[in-house]
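Good morning C.,

I know you're traveling, so I'll keep this short. The sequence:
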Amino acid sequence: MSAHLGTALDLAARGVPVLPLRAGKLPFGNCDDCRGNACGGRPNMKAPGPCHCPRACHAWAAATTDHAVLTGGPWAPVWEQTQAVAYHPGGIGLTVVDLDHADAVAWARQALPATRTVPTTRGEHWIYQGAMRSVNGVRDGVDIKSTMSYARWLGPGTGTMTALPDPVRALVVKEPSTVRPAPQTITVPARAGSGECPHRTPTYLNRGITMAEQRITEASNAVHATVYRTFLAVLSAHGRCGCLTNTHIERLFTAAQTRGETARHCTDAWTNALTRLGL
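The tokens, ready to paste straight into the viewer:
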């Protein structure tokens, strides 16, 4: 057994979702269709790609505690090539403040509450108890890694972990602009179907859209995968008749965007769901 696999299994046994990283600190795909980015997913595989796999198989969305997944399937042969083990901080309710150089570390010591720290090649990871949105480049040399992100496992660190403080949360909040922005337009794909609607009342459809919105907005992790699967479920129920309107689709896109998805991600997920169903 490789040392990296041993580390991954030890972390997984403690409930930490993990994944192997190849050269360049990039993930491996963990299904046959997505090995070597064969599915056409995003080149660096830092987010789930447009594959049609039954489960998420890219980057943070693939992080797992499942012994069988870690030791079998497409990941079985890659551990000898693995350069590092990564984990999904948001999946266990943690936030990593990634400080990439000495100046960033000096800033953190002045601006942030002390917490558990882990030395990195060029700086430090400061780890807080609590999850939040992940954003890179919140200031020079500072990235936030929590939900929908992964961080390298570099050891347990030292110091006492403290609760996620407001100064860290504030790092991802943009300063209000004095210029009123133009309204953002959501591009909605054409409706999928135009057949006779079998639903005798709009209540069934409205209830389904409301439940879909709730499923997206309440997703605590794997948001990309949740959005795609929710779109797929809605289209499975309503995609072959003419009952879905642009208003319904806009509601779904808006819910996804409140969880950090871009308009492009929404359109890609919707198009992929249409293709999966042959619509």
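Safe travels,
E.
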